[in-house]
Amino acid sequence: MKHLANVLYITTPESYLMLEGESIVLRRDNNPALSIPLINLENIVCFNYQGVSPALMGACAERNIGLSFITPYGRFLARVSGRVKGNVLLRKKQYLLSEDESQSTTLAKSFLTGKLYNARKVIERVIRDHALLVDVQELKTVSTSLKQTLNILQKCETRSELMAHEGNSAREYFGVFNQLILQQQDEFRFEERSRRPPLDKVNALLSFFYSILANEVVTALETVGLDPYVGFLHTDRPGRPSLALDLMEELRPVFADRLVLNLINRKQVSGKGFIQKESGGILMDDETRKAVLNAWQERKKEEIIHPFLKEKISFGLIPYVQALLLARHLRGDLDAYPPFFWS
User: Fold this and answer.
1) Domain range holding 18?
2) Which of 70, 100, 126 is the last residue in one of the domains?
3) I need a labelling partner for 227 at 20 to 30 A (CA). Which of 27, 53, 243, 244 fits?
4) What phi, psi does 73 have (nearest 5°)?
């Protein structure tokens, strides 16, 4: 089993990264501020403005260390990749199945089944733990509707049908998301999902985590030899990691939504840690971004029993395990792709 490695997040805008020997050196105002051996890293995620030296880019590509650039809003910009990894026969099978409507629809059902199941779990957890603080009947109504949609998905014959039902379910789910915010309700109010830019603090957190998750899913897919840009649910579009977006669907409620609620409800973030730009978009200040990334890293270290493998793994390895199971299915080693079901 793969081991959970370190991710380096560069959050200070004035930082510049360069290579010295076998180490990354972070410089501020032309002075070295930090040195980290490359061997300790699996990914580098940059929110800085000054950039990275070409030598470091080359070293990351050669060593298969992910190097990604993300805006302060959390929107993905670019990724430096090395040689394509994996069995060419696996990718050819992926490309072949992606052109088959029936096969693609079957896989798409699995991704969305995991998504709706885990979204229900998020709601049901709040009902179970905080029944006196929420409108239980409204939450149960949405939970029941999501359950009904799970059954409907199995009868869909095209991806367009699946996307229509998924869109309705997403509106229902986010329609009660504000109820799941139990603390700091004046500072963190959610009305609807907004993107590019996020227009409130909750959306700022959601978008940020979705971008981080997308980056980690891309890495996981590349690690097992799959092409993250050719999907089964999301249509192909230049520059869009469609397969990563597919696999993310079942992981969003567990990795991002639940963590956002925990950060707010446990008062690990404050409404004062956000900035509104002239465009109306909301982004985190440096201190809040660091706290959020720290919470993300701590979450990844937690251990769970994987529902399909029945093995204890770190939470952060779930994207890798799901990518591996998808690859096994495409190779014919598994009859169906088993989505991740949060318990």
Assistant:
1) 6-70
2) 70
3) 53
4) -75, -15
Rounded CA-CA distance 254/259 in Å is: 7
Residue type, 52: V
DSSP 8-state code for residue 298: H
In terms of DSSP H, where are the helices of the chain? 54-62, 88-98, 101-129, 136-153, 159-175, 201-223, 242-248, 258-265, 286-301, 318-331
The residue among 209, 240, 227 whose CA lies nearest residue 88 is 227
Q: Do residues 275 and 306 both lie within one domain? A: yes
Q: Is residue 313 part of a domain?
A: yes
268-320 confidence digits (pLDDT tens): 999 898 988 877 788 888 889 889 998 998 898 888 999 998 888 888 889 98
Alpha-carbon distance of 208 to 293, in angstroms, equals 10
Query: What spatial distance separates the first Cα and last Cα of the chain, rounded to whole Å?
Result: 22
Same domain, 96 and 192: yes
- pTM here is 0.83
Confirm whether 337 is domain-assigned: no
CA–CA distance, 170 with 161 (Å, rounded to integer): 14
Q: Is 226 helix (H, G, I), strand (E, B) or coil?
A: coil
ω into 197 cis (within 30 of 0):
yes
Residue entry with tokens 């709601």: 123
Pull the structure tokens for residue 46.
């940059």
Q: How many domains does the chain have?
A: 2
Cβ proximity of 282 and 207 under 8 Å: no
Q: Which residues contact 108 (CB under 8 A, 6 or more apart)?
A: 159, 162, 232, 233, 246
Q: Is residue 81 part of a domain?
A: no
